[in-house]
């Protein structure tokens, strides 16, 4: 069986999602537009943004222009955005979605995620997300950054089980308890920060593995994600890197090399609940603005 950027996984509601896509965190609107257009040029089918990133408009413009340039249509790609922390709550979430869709220049997203489990808000937010799904404005719904305690609380109140939990996932933080819990409930884990930054990319043992396969360390890590069944969204605004990140389908890691990456786990997160003011009851959260 051959794999490429069109390789898909079927979610628990029957929607299929590409296993590999392109993220745009920390990109301004101009950069996000260019990255999406480059991604389309090089065969990417999944694009991941969020209101908090402040670049939904750029992603929307990139999709409109990029799809036209490659002769594809909206139905050919998979688009994810997320409910902003400052919009959480039942009515607030319902009120916010149309503005997000307008910025993205689409009538629907393929996946809508609750970006973070805002204390005291995320259950009501999920009720609204279920309504958005039923209205056809999202083809699948899920969450992001939900630990097992918060996920169980959500499941206790939900009528629709989340299709995805997007978590920080890379060789240094493998979320094993969360991954196991999600799998028990038919929830797919999707990786943000799949490359883990310099601590992973500069690892000398991974460099040896990369040399063996004539690949970069980043390609080795992304292939490890892929072979592990993880949905993955590396971010880049550089064409060469966007191309390189997609060049992981012409080799397969041995069981021994897969195990080497699994052995690197430190369960060390770069961002977690105590980094947000809403954990103390303040839900005021700002959209990140990176300039144009």
Main beta-sheet annotation: 8 strands, parallel
Uncertain stretches: none
Q: Helix amount, in percent?
A: 25-40%
Judged by helices, strands and strand pairing, the structural class is alpha/beta
The coarse overall form would be globular
Per DSSP, the total helix count is: 11
The radius of gyration over CA amounts to: 18 Å
Mean pLDDT: 93
Q: Count of DSSP E strands?
A: 10
Organism: Holzapfeliella saturejae
Protein name: Aldo/keto reductase
Pfam family, one: Aldo_ket_red
Keywords: NADP, Oxidoreductase
What this model shows, in words?
It is a single chain. Helix content is 40%, strand content 13%. The protein is α/β, with parallel strands linked by helices. The longest helix has 15 residues. The protein has an eight-stranded parallel β-sheet, with helices on one face. Helix 1 packs parallel to helix 2, helix 2 packs parallel to helix 3 and helix 3 crosses helix 4.
Write the layout of secondary structure elements.
Elements lengths: L7 E3 L5 E3 L3 E2 L5 H13 L4 E3 L7 H15 L7 E6 L6 H15 L6 E4 L7 H13 L6 E4 L3 H10 L6 E5 L7 H9 L3 E5 L5 H4 L2 H10 L3 H11 L3 E2 L6 H8 L8 H8 L30
Parallel strand pairs: 3-4, 4-5, 5-6, 6-7, 7-8, 8-9, 9-10
Antiparallel strand pairs: 1-2
Helix pairs in contact: 1-2, 2-3, 3-4
């Amino acid at each position: 069986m051959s794999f490429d950027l069109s390789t898909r996984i079927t979610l628990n509601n029957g929607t299929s999602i590409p296993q590999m896509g392109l993220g745009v965190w920390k990109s301004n609107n101009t950069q996000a537009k260019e990255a999406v257009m480059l991604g389309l040029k090089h065969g990417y089918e999944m694009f991941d943004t969020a209101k908090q990133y402040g670049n939904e408009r750029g992603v929307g413009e990139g999709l409109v222009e990029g799809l036209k340039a490659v002769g594809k249509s909206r139905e050919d790609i998979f688009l994810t955005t997320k409910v902003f922390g400052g919009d959480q709550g039942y009515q607030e979430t319902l009120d916010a979605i149309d503005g997000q869709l307008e910025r993205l220049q689409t009538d629907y997203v393929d996946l809508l995620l609750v970006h973070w489990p805002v204390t005291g808000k995320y259950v009501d937010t999920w009720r609204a997300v279920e309504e958005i799904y039923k209205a056809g404005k999202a083809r699948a719904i899920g969450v992001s950054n939900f630990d097992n305690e918060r996920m169980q609380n959500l499941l206790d109140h939900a009528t629709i089980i989340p299709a995805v939990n997007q978590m920080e996932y890379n060789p240094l933080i493998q979320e094993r308890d969360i991954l196991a819990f999600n799998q028990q409930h038919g929830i797919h884990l999707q990786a943000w920060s799949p490359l883990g930054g310099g601590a992973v990319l500069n690892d000398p043992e991974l460099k040896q593995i990369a040399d063996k396969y004539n690949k970069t360390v980043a390609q080795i890590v992304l292939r490890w994600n892929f072979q592990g069944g993880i949905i993955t969204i590396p971010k880049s605004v550089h064409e060469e890197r966007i191309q390189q990140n997609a060049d992981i389908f012409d080799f397969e890691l041995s069981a021994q090399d897969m195990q080497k990456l699994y052995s690197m786990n430190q369960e060390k997160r770069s961002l977690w609940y105590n980094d947000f003011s809403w954990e103390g009851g303040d839900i005021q959260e700002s959209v990140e603005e990176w300039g144009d």
